[in-house]
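Repro:
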Amino acid sequence: MNRIFQDLRFAARQLRKSPGFTAVAVVTLALGIGANTGIFTVVNGLLLKMLPVRDPQQLAVVGDPARASSRSNGTPRTDVFSYPLYKELRDRNSVFSGLCAAATDHHIEVDAGQGGLPDEKINGRMVSGNYFNVLGLEPAAGRLFSDADDTAEGANPVVVLGYEYWQRKFALASSIIGKDIRVNGYPFTVIGVAPAGFDGDIVGEQMALFVPLSMQPQIIRGRHWRNSGNNSWLSLIGRLKSNVSPAQAEANVNIVFQQALKADYGAALSSDDRSAIQTAHISVAAGGGGISELRSDYRTPLLLLLGIVGLVLLIACVNVANLLLARASSRYREIALRLAIGANPRRLLQQLLTESLLLGLLGGIAGSLLAIWGVRLLVQLLGSDASLPLSPDWRVLAFTITISLLTGLVFGLVPALQTLKVRVAPALKNATRTNTEAGSRFTWGKGLIVGQVALSLLVLFSAGLLVRSLQNLMTQNFGYDRNHLVIARLDPTGAGYNSERMKLLAQQLVERLASAPGVRGVTYSTNGLFAGSESGDAIIVPGFSAGRVSDRVALEDYVGADYFSVVGIPILTGRGIEAQDTGTSLRVAVVNEAMAKHFFAGQNPIGRQFRIDDPDWVAKPFTIVGISRDAKDHGSGIREEVKPRFYQAFQQTPDPEQIILEAQVSGAPSGAVANVLGQIKAADARLPISFIQTLDTLVTKSAGNQIALAKLSAFFASLALLLACVGLYGVISYTVANRTREIGVRMALGARRGDVMELVLREGMLLVAIGLLVGIPLALASTRLLHSFLFGLKSTDPVSLIAVVLLLGMVAAVAGFIPARRASKIDPMVALRYE
């Protein structure tokens, strides 16, 4: 320990003696370590952190709520659950000590004052009475829910506040307990506050308050879901009994599920629904990290970015290693003198590595400070407004310390070993510039630069592929012009509208908006483009047969008159949905090209009929009146092939769920948003508006992870390019310094300045060429891992590869020009006296 402390003190003195070297090395390492720490902090908050609850490792998520849409009305599902199915699983399982439920819808309006308009829209969570008990939480104030708070529908208007909301809105005042606040216009009594640090079980969503599931009709007005087996709206989390694994729990849950289909729950379902879910399977997975759609969306991109910034750190290590090799020349006689008076080489190696480790730790400290500032920027570049738990914890601290120490070893080992190869006698004669050891050190420096160029090529090529892929993705043919559409999603049911009044409202809104300035056309639908939830049904087409039910499924939407002309989807044959298609006229449908090809083998389907395979619909055939061009939407996804879809008349559907308005505007659509919002409010100020945005914004959000990956990879590739440029400049400068006398002799013998510049540049470009030869096959092999992220190009895309090679060549030429120009200005007389 005394030796370690002695080495640390000596290392600190050595670094303090060379402030320029220390500053450059620390900044270089800080960039690499800071980038890695920042990405790992996001990875930790999104993928690794556990919920702040009792024994989170015992929790399990039942179903797959992260990948489910907000809710479903139709055939029961097993990714999210109906309330009756939840009760069956809760009461009959033998693997959970407790199973709780929470609603997938969680946007709530709160008026904490004396009534009137809501003062804010926040995230809230409808939860079962045993929710806090299953999670093992204690209140920060008052009490939490019990089973008694989740009994009869509408009987318990109580609310538990989130700690952060309590702090922000009520300044931690305990007097709020027992007071009323209005939630979605209904009075609720505050009974308690959730513990500090607990924001709910959804990662990235900060819940401001919690209400019992029994209050669903008051929170989501106009709907009664608790007794419906066809409304899937609940996510489930359970606490496993001791010595029960998620796999064992999954087996038991599916046995209970099949038993439930034969019991009272199954008897309440139609035979069609029972057969549809007879072979369904419920998954059970570890749930200590909570529920997160972000996790599934960003897991692979974040791990890929972690690999990219790891390469950037290696490039930074190469730069510092070359700095240490160059610095070794100034310590050449020092090391020789130590060896001459009997120093143990292993002891010297320890001391030199201590310097490197101290330098790594200093870079780690600076990188951590950089990461604290940069992690928020990273989240912004990810394009997410999620509230992620990004505060550093022991994992981030351990990662930073480990990576700092490993970095110190990586960049310090080779220079330290090379320094110890000094020959004592020549060194003591001051032959520092002509000995073989200096040449050996410089050879290592050249080798490191070759590796640096190869790594830079890999990072730049990967980033180039991702950027070009994103460009292809966002400029593809969507089947319509998305640049002049404003989309508004309305929930008239929440304002008390029934089906018939909702249909009338849709027409009234179209008439009102059509006369608004700047609006060229208005229509409406139920699902919309990238705007609503998705729906689909198995259909029956005469003459078409399929072995699997999934092959008979077509997506669907309910659209108003002139929908295709307003949105800009061309009708290829026949006609679109028109005003004449009412509830009393012939039931009609428009199919897209994909549906015509899949179900009708490419034949003209105009005039043919199909039916929905459901007892309530099978006697109501649709007659096909038109074929529309394939169009991208949320059902097919921005990356996937367009799926079969049919459009039926909104006015012919018996029970529309919502209204999505599509307004085509002149000029920039962002400027028309306020105008459209004003017209909707003028029609009925009580109408709940989920959102109103431009279609282009919605499309961009749907590609959020691809955009984030392209942005961040391009940023880190630029950093890698900068470090490679600095490294190449340093090595060529070191070359010129080592060869000053040789260059002086050449110029004394008649060499021209241009010849000297060519000599230096040629050597630098040779290093780059070797690095490219090494890097190209490495990049072509490694970028196969990017295949699933690419759209419209291959991982061996020659255009991207050629562009990166040319870029590195130009950067190398710029980096080598300054030292080469300096070499051409060497005075022969000064150079001959150099040593």
